Every structure is written in structure tokens, then in C-alpha cells.
Amino acid sequence: MHNKQVLMRLGLSEQRANAYLKLLELGGATGSELAKNMGVQRTSVYSILQSLSQEGLVENYIQKKKQFYRAVPPEKVATRFAEKLDAFRAVIPLMKTMEKKEARAFGLRFIETISELKTIYRDILDEYRGREYRIIGSAPAWEGISKEFFEQYRKDRAARNIKTRLLLTAESETMNIEGASLLREFRYLPSNHSFKSTIDIFEDKILVISPDLSALAVVIAIPAMIDVFSSIFEMLWNLSANRI
Asked: Minimal CB count within 10 Å: which of 109, 110, 190, 230?
């Protein structure tokens, strides 16, 4: 790769890259000398030099009452770029937090830990007492997050008269707990439809849980998306063979 192409990949325009390389070659030059060597107008070269100076790629000095410009040595330029990159990396955690806060403003909430997820489910026990919600999911993956907690959660959910309708993956049948006391009605999806995620569809939100997500779970409180998932559930429910 040519020197100019490398500089352009670092964000320099073609003219700024040419000016920097020409100053390296000349060892230093006045604005007029640089313009002549580059074959550009003198008035335009000064804006290029000012830009390179602001970026830390060019230094200026006075000699015999004339202003000269010289290129900052490449190794110093590399160090400055490395420092900028390190500074950017240092603020990535803060920026990611800002990104998630912004997402929450649009109806998204990211659940990072099992403890947070358990809190969500405990809140559901109070919010949905005597109501119903729907689930599309994988029993092995869901229970695998915290088997003891979710086994108890099923019982606590039924104790609060919360009914559920579930569309489960075929492999869920081997471990799915049956029994009218749990207030669950379930059907199984065809065996060629396998996934590890679980989607809880509530009246006011959707909870997507997956061990493959960068966050453990996502709460989506966007009405249009709730409508879509609700419609998809009802369509699949009606198409599924009831195997209770």
C-alpha cells in the first residue's frame, strides 16, 4: 500500500496527505514553496497547512523572518494516533452505557445479570396476578439459566392465578412439567424449528431471554412490536397441533 493511501485511511484527504508527504521530502518549506512543489495555488495551501497543524501532523517555525512548515516525524504521528485510540477505548464503557440509556428512552431495557432477570420475574408475579401472558420458547434453555428459581417460579405464578399459554420447541417435551395445577396450556412446535431463546409476551411489554445475547435479556415496551409478537403467537397457536 502506498504512503498516501495509508494516510488517507487514517482520515486525511488526498491534498492533506500530499502536503504532509511533500514536507517530509523537503524537510521544511514556506507556504509558497510547498504550493509550488505541489502544483497548487498558494491561497489553498494555507488552509491545508492549518488543518494539518490542528491535527498535529505539521509544525511551523520562524527562520529569517519567514514562516516555515515541517512535517511531524512519522513515529510521533503514530504515537499521537495511538494516544487518541487509547483515549477512545477508555470512554467506550461510558459510551455503551449512554447507548443503552438512549435505547431505554425508545422502550428498550437491557438485563445484564441473572439477579436482574429474577427481579423482573418477581415483579411479574405482582403485576399479572389473575391475568394471562403468552410464551414462545425453549424449556431447556430457560430453565438452564437458573433451574431452581424457575421451577419455583412456575409454582408461585400459579399460586397468584396467572395463566400461561406456551408454544415450546420440540425438545422441551422431554422436560416440560405437566399438571393442571400450574395453570399452563402448551403446544409444541415442529422439531425442525429449534432455538434457545424464550419470548414472554405481556400486554405492555415483551421479554426476550437468550444466553446468546450480549445482554442476558431485553425488555421491549414498544406497542407496535408487542402487537406484532402477539399476532405471531396467535397465528402459531392456531396452526399448532394441540398435544396436551
From this structure: 190
pTM of the model: 0.55
pLDDT digits (tens, 9 = 90+) for 2-31: 788 888 777 788 888 898 899 888 888 988
Q: How would you label 189-205 residue by residue, b for 16+ Cβ within 10 Å and e otherwise?
A: beeeeeebbbbbbbeeb
Are the C-beta atoms of residues 136 and 236 closer than 8 Å to each other? yes
166 DSSP β-pair partners: 135, 186
Which fold would CATH assign to domain 3-72? Answer: Arc Repressor Mutant, subunit A (1.10.10)
| CA 115 and chain centroid, separation | 21
Matching CATH number, 106-239, of 3.30.870.10, 3.30.360.10, 3.40.630.30, 3.20.20.70: 3.30.870.10
